[in-house]
Automatic annotation (TrEMBL):
The keyword NAD applies. Keywords: NAD, Oxidoreductase. It holds the Pfam family ADH_N. Residues 41-337 form the Enoyl reductase (ER) domain. CDD domains: MDR_like_2. GO terms for molecular function: oxidoreductase activity. The lineage of its organism: Eukaryota, Viridiplantae, Streptophyta, Embryophyta, Tracheophyta. PROSITE patterns: QOR_ZETA_CRYSTAL. InterPro entries: ADH-like_N, AOR-like, ER, GroES-like_sf, NAD(P)-bd_dom_sf, Quin_OxRdtase/zeta-crystal_CS. The keyword Endoplasmic reticulum does not apply. This is Quinone oxidoreductase-like protein. It comes from the Eukaryota. Belongs to the zinc-containing alcohol dehydrogenase family. Quinone oxidoreductase subfamily.
């Protein structure tokens, strides 16, 4: 796995907290660089602008000076209008995953302060009225409850790659009632969600056996993440295996095949494509900073690791190219945007 240093993005002197707070607040500009689209459509509607208004901070929010962000399929799904009926209307600054430094706090914020290094998925509901000001910008405003302190052993690029993927993996396993001694098959084990499902199932939930699918070139990655059985989907059909699993976690949209690989009484977790028929169930993530806090010891110990696509990171002014790459469905782990505030 490729490692990325934070390159000393932010360095803070030992001046008093009050002086530092004053310095940060006074240095916040009124305008920022950000990617934005004013109408739904293809890649051409997304523009890089330098005069986007820095978002206002509500009482329960903090303003983050963004160091790094990561991309997710929902970023381009929103842009094309897939969730138009329940989306916040454009203009929209896309982006869910963020890592950065708190530079301003709302009046009701109690657990975070200016100068804290934080990370999180900034949208509590993935598709229901998500924020119009996302993380693909120099600043973003986020509710305190959606954030956690960045693990000390991870740089900003690594931290930004984690929140949506690890929270989706965890919530799906919880909803499936996954527990120690159970077996699981992960479809799309090398992706942004699947790579965390493998690790959480093994390290956090105590799986008896973890199987996962990927293309030929990513099989060794699956094994390094903890998969006991790595299945090359280009050469064999997972549903034809004689062994069945307590849970099948479908991270790639193969629900009709997935139900053929689950044991009687088992569950199939579906995270794309909407409603599923039993034993499958679909869910949409609810972002929660408490999940990140709960999993922090596993991240800080190195038992659970972020997987960053080796073609990145992409700088902020290359987000359009990064999204085009993500849309090829060939990315390994997460596509990261870094640096954002060099």
């Amino acid at each position: 796995m490729r490692q990325y240093g934070s390159r000393g993005i932010f360095s803070y002197t030992s001046c008093s907290a009050a002086a530092e707070s004053s310095r940060m607040s006074s240095s916040i500009p009124s305008k920022m660089k950000a990617w934005i689209y004013n109408d739904y459509g293809g890649p051409e509607v997304l523009k890089f602008e330098s005069d986007v208004a820095v978002p206002e901070v509500k009482d329960d929010q903090v303003l983050i000076k963004v160091a790094a962000a990561a991309l997710n399929p929902i970023d381009f799904q929103r842009r094309v209008g897939k969730f138009k009926a329940i989306d916040s209307p454009p203009p929209t600054v896309p982006g869910y995953d963020v890592a950065g430094v708190v530079v301003k706090v709302g009046s009701q914020v109690q657990g975070l302060k200016e100068g804290d290094e934080v990370y999180g998925d900034i949208n509590e509901k993935s598709v229901e009225q998500p924020k119009r000001f996302g993380s693909l910008a120099e600043y973003t405003a986020v509710e305190e409850r959606l954030l956690a302190l960045k693990p000390k052993n991870l740089d900003f690029a690594q931290a930004a790659s984690i929140p949506l993927g690890i929270e989706t993996a965890y919530e799906g396993l919880e909803r499936a009632g996954f527990s120690a001694g159970k077996s699981i098959l992960v479809l799309g084990g090398a992706g942004g969600v699947g790579s965390f499902v493998i690790q959480l199932a093994k390290q956090v939930f105590g799986a008896s056996k973890v199987a996962a699918t990927s293309s030929t070139g990513k099989l060794e990655l699956l094994k390094s993440l903890g998969a006991d059985l790595a299945i090359d989907y280009t050469k064999e059909n997972f549903e034809d295996l004689p062994e069945k699993f307590d849970v099948v976690y479908d991270a790639v949209g193969q629900r009709d095949r997935a139900v053929k690989a689950v044991k009687e009484g088992g569950s199939v977790v579906v995270i794309s494509g909407g409603a599923a028929t039993p034993p499958g169930f679909f869910f949409s993530l609810t972002s929660n900073g408490e999940v990140l806090k709960k999993l922090s010891p596993f991240l800080e110990s190195g038992k659970v690791k972020p997987v960053i696509d080796p073609n990145g990171p992409f700088p902020l002014d290359k987000v359009d190219k990064a999204l085009s790459y993500l849309e090829t469905n060939r990315a390994t782990g997460k596509v990261v945007i870094f640096p954002i505030n060099p």
